[in-house]
User: Fold these one by one.
Assistant:
Number 1:
Amino acid sequence: MIALLLAQTIAITGGTVYPVSGPKLAAATVLIRDGRIVAVATNVPIPADATRIDAAGKWITPGLIDGAGQLGLVEINAVPGTRDASVQGDTIAAAFNVAEGINPASTLIPVTRIEGITTALAVPTGNLVSGQAVLIDLDGATIDQMLVKSPAGIVADLSESAKDDAGGSRAAVADRLRRVFRDALEYERRKTDFSRAQMQPLAASARDLEALLPLLHGRVPLIAYANRRSDIATALRLAKEFNVQLILAGAAEGWEIAAEIAAARVPVLVEPLNNIPSYDALGIRYENAAVLAKAGVKVALLEPDTHKSRNLRQQAGNAVSYGMTWDQALRAVTLSPAEIFGVADRYGSLEPGKVANVVVWSGDPFEFTTGVEHVLIRGKEIPLKSRQTELFERYKKLPPSY
Amino acid sequence: MRPLLSLLLAVTGACASAGGSARSSQAPAPAAPAATAAATTPERESAARPQYPSTYARHPNPPVLIRNATIMTATGHEIPNGSILLKDGRIVAVGAKVEAPADAVVVDGTGKYVTPGLIDDHSHLGVYAAPGTDAESDGNEATNPVTAEVWAEHSFWPQDPQIPLAIAGGITTIQALPGSANLIGGRSAILKLIPARTVQEMKFPGAHYGLKMACGENPKRVYGRKGGPATRMGNMAGYRAAFILAEGYRRRWDAWNKDHKGDPPERNLRLESLAEVLRGNMYVQNHCYRADEMAQMLDLAHEFGFKIRSFHHAVESYKIADLLAKEGTSVSVWADWWGFKEEAMDGIQQNAALNQQAGGRPLIHSDDPGGIQRLNQEAAKAMYAGQRSGIPITRDQALRWITVNPAWTIGLDSVVGTLEPGKMADVVVWSSDPFSVYSKAIQVYNDGWLVYDRNDPAHQPRTDFELGQVPAPGSDR
């Protein structure tokens, strides 16, 4: 409501608009009213009451979406009191939704959004089933104001790091997940027996099994972290067995089975700048995103390090260096993640009716020369300030004045 | 050509690696306190014998002329449509027009950019090698807060598969450092980044060892419950106690070295390293985040009469950029890392630029096997962040952040770090402007040796580790 009351009409004029949903438009206008985009075209009548942003010579794109990280869920990695992304004591933490752990006042949010990232997935970590990820806009005084979609997916870990939670073998990880999924369906069929204590012990708590039902009925996707080719294949197999809507994440060796992933119509969340071999992914390489995209896989690009979320555009630029087309890369940080997280009706492109998350750049958003000139989130212009800009202002001339 | 060649010979005389064809005979950096004793005493004592010498030898190569490229010299200017000639491991000529010897390999640099080989003065390649299991965790001798006696080269694994990745990013020299668990973590290794069977073959001839020291959170976290230090004041007391012992050790050895009368003092490897710092032969490379702690460390250095060569990480160096410039201590920083721990909370993107503005000597380091592959990109981010904030950083200054400034920090700025006649032929050819996100190193020459060529699998070195388990670039498996 507050957003609506403060809403206004904004016309971003004269720039080159990259709507993502269609070809770029030179000298075009993006007209925004009440937090939504109402027009994107070259001949848009501009209402008299509109606030104008002159974007001549600038590039205009949708706000970037980072489908990874823990924005709002971590302030300082080394300070446990500021971390809220992981729950202990429950290896199947399907009912753990991170939303209420989000701190809208986190200093990371302004640091990130003033560099053109307007939306991010807040991802639970740890355990075999980590919990429920939520999609947030990087503006809002309350969690409710920030939430875009909750849950956006339930996160499971099929990478090497999950083995210990399943007894020490990859095979046990898959077996455990199968038992959990079967028990969730069994629990659903026999809730009465369960309440009368007439069921064998279940593979997870009733509330975690209950939380998995939307996933098992195809209403919430499974976000499965897997890196080794065989683990990716396991995730595909599990998804097929249980008819689960799957999103692969990490997928370091995904390029090796790109055709299978494409055939299964499973989208992939990839960090482009990741090529350090480990026993979990000896085949890891920079070309992963490009090979997957070329095979027809829907790819979203990630910057998984929360404090570096602003480097999503550097990730995208490097994805181009290693084989993606520029258009593919832009889509992979805007419309593709919106589609993957099921919010493409509202997010990811510059089209009438969509939420007005818009960035005005001085040039190519992936280039280092480029600065952010304007950021709008839900139609509201965001001041380009953060704790870091305040520190700079204080110390740009020495000695500082306190 | 002739005048340039004579200049080359004059310049090389300044570096320890001057000389004929092979340089296998080069001495390591002066290491032991007995370095002077070695010449005059019989080699009965260990201190008088060779101390882990470099066996580096230049790979033989034909001369190479790269022509019609933008030459970024790191000496203050760029040469459009310029040429550079490499011969016998040296840069022979740089200019608008350079003639090639008949036997030169000619590289068409049209549209390409040429820079000095990049130098990372803060790497853990080889000591924290991939694939990253406990078996390769050799960077922190976290058994005592002061382990000046350990040498990173004795942990370094030349088959670390991260090495060819860094080479492909245009890196030609690294300082491989011990980790930061300890107050004094040990000696660094200054290495040519080349394929090699042994670390001795990689040791940069004539380099100054660094001594890794660490401030702040890490030592007190690691030792807080293992006997201390548990506080920052405990950290300071720990450094001071160590250097007080080193003063006496240095005095005893220096006195004995004068006349060699009587038995030599007993060797102590820990104090030997610290005494070398007191003598100015070994450079202090100090992991330190907070501005107030850096100021404390400068006082420590004044107390014991040594210089801190560089503050590493130094996320708050912009707060005392004037002080650091006055001290002549370089700052080895990231472009934009921050927030992973409390002492990193105040990191800002203008850090390098503000230090430059204050007249200091900033440089961009990686501390990371990913970041070392794109130091050019990190320098670009830091340069443009400065420019956008009104700090007029030049392209040449930003290039110096990843070439001659780190070379200075490891004492090799007269040998590498710029494209000038006489310098070692460490040269990178880039596909486009290296400050663009789309630019890639396409050729890397290390001492004239084409160690990497993006377009030629014959020049894409692979480690033993990769064979049969890491698919080769461009291949399936």
Number 2:
Amino acid sequence: MTRPVTHETVTESGDQGGPGVQATAADDKRRVGDSVFRLLATGSGLTILVILALVAAFLVIQGSPALLAPAETLKTQGYGEFAAWVAPFAFGTVWAAILALAMAVPVAIGIALFISHYAPRAIAQPLGYVIDLLAAVPSVVFGLWGTSVLAVATQPLYLWLNTHLSWIPFFGGQASGTGRTILTAAVVLAVMVLPITTSMCREVFLQAPRLHEEAALALGATRWEMIRMAVLPFARPGIVAAVMLGLGRALGETMAVAMVMSGGRNITFQVLTSNNPNTIAATIAQNFPEAFGLKTNQLVAAGLILFLITLVVNMLARWIVARRAEYSGAN
Amino acid sequence: MRITPFASSLVALAAAVSLAGCAANEAAPAGSAAATSSGATLTGKGSSAMKAAQEKWVADFQTANSGVTVNYSPEGSGAGRSAFIAGAAQFAGSDRALKDEEMGAGKFAGCAADSSALNLPVYVSPIAIIFNIEGVDSLTLDPATAAGIFAGKITTWNDPAIAKTNPGVTLPDGNITAVHRADDSGTTSNFTDTLNALAPTVWTEAASDAWPAAIGGEAATGTSGVVGAVTNGTNTIGYADASQAAKLGHVTLLVDGKKLTPTADAASKIVDASPLVKGRATNDLALKLDRTSEGAYPAVLVSYVIVCETYQDSATAKLVKDYVGYIASSAGQQSAATAAGSAPLSSAFQAKVKAAVDSIK
């Protein structure tokens, strides 16, 4: 894989030094193309905002009957008081995503660095394709694999962890007899967020200025020191963005979690038991088919909470990146 | 520029939806213009428990009456009931009868203005307690023990309460993993109702579609999810439609000294033994299931077809009568038993349903 030309080496040419005095007909033609393209681009940008606004409006309008209903009504016609009902699911959503990212991010960065800086070209390219291929596997397949293969295979390990390491709070409680725990779900989620996080990290690492890398090597740095000094600081905002994309996938993943995890309505940090906090997306998917009336509204309102969680998490990430911008080598 | 195609697709979508809506409402009058036999469409929605049976009934009925289309979408009992109430479906499939407060003349958009609805039990299916325990082939439990296991009060297989009803069986000392449905389900409702009826001191929760949150345990999505979790796990127990869990061991229930297994005969007995809900119209066959009736397997799911007393037009009424009449007939019941593993209604009860169907106008 050839290194793309870095920004510094792009020569300043183009607009100002353009054709200058030319036939006005060609000039006009180009202006038409310009304005058409500008309109298309602006339109695309607006479309995404409109879609987002429509989705938000749908969630608010459809969810508000449940949000506004008194707790008593929700107890009889819905799933129970809203805040108490949704809190375990909100916790489960974030907790499962955190566990998944804790497993996926180090591996993703490792794979990306291997492809960009360690592997010979003959290996790096096919490996990149294989990783991208992983993204094309439908989540239902991951779910099936998780529940019928991974859960069964990891159950003895969970039992061992539970017997010998139950003094660690995470491994406490009574170990699941099926292996369908939040830890298994997190492993499946980790595999699912791996491709998107890896390919983005890889692209960012490839963008690291070649001159910085060579300078580091020239000063006697080892390859790892070079990566630490020249590549990682430059790539930090990109890594955060990649993690955020992965997090989005992990937060919103429905089918695999619904199939793999034995989800309930409790808040616990124990990862080996049958009683795991379900995720919002899985709860909606599991209950929507039999829901009607206020129950439907309540599920949509839970969707609104998920929407807000995603929004807050993304804003937090942007803020972190912005705050750390001065440390990065990008500028 | 981009907004235009987006907007136009929205318009197209809206048009398609409204057209579909019209089609659903006007199908019957269109059918009445021609002979009933051609081009008529009947729309039903509801219970996914009787999906396999409905598919079989639809296939049988359409073969016998060429040109008639019956659509049954198994979107769930709740969806079916609300579609029927809103007039979007001409009949609903539901795992429970409509409650007293849901009944009443004029409450159903698809029925005539002065018409209430009829609840007709047509699908009876035994719910088996399934288990997968190392080295154990058959298991007998009394209701209190079964309730204790599912409530999480009995946690190991070598518990004295289990050993007492299983003399000669070597039970492992492993932990019990009790699997329940993660999604709302009529199966859960009937199963928890059974535990509550037979062991009220151990199982204090009322029947509900959702598994009681206070109890917990292993949750799995759908019947296939529960069967999969029980099959793949070790020392597991769960509950599922008996016909869908044929490969697993079924618990024998020991009620008042009688051993009951989830067979078709034992299941359909409960329908004959149960009284009707009081205060309903003569032809409404909503059952107040008596799960303690002697010799009847208590954990059964009874699904209803909910129809109008009087339809807005006679063509739809005739179509509904023909279709539901077939479902409740001996041939229809036998057909579902073969295809879906349900328990056929007794001939006495078939006659009751037939009388009710004949009263539809």
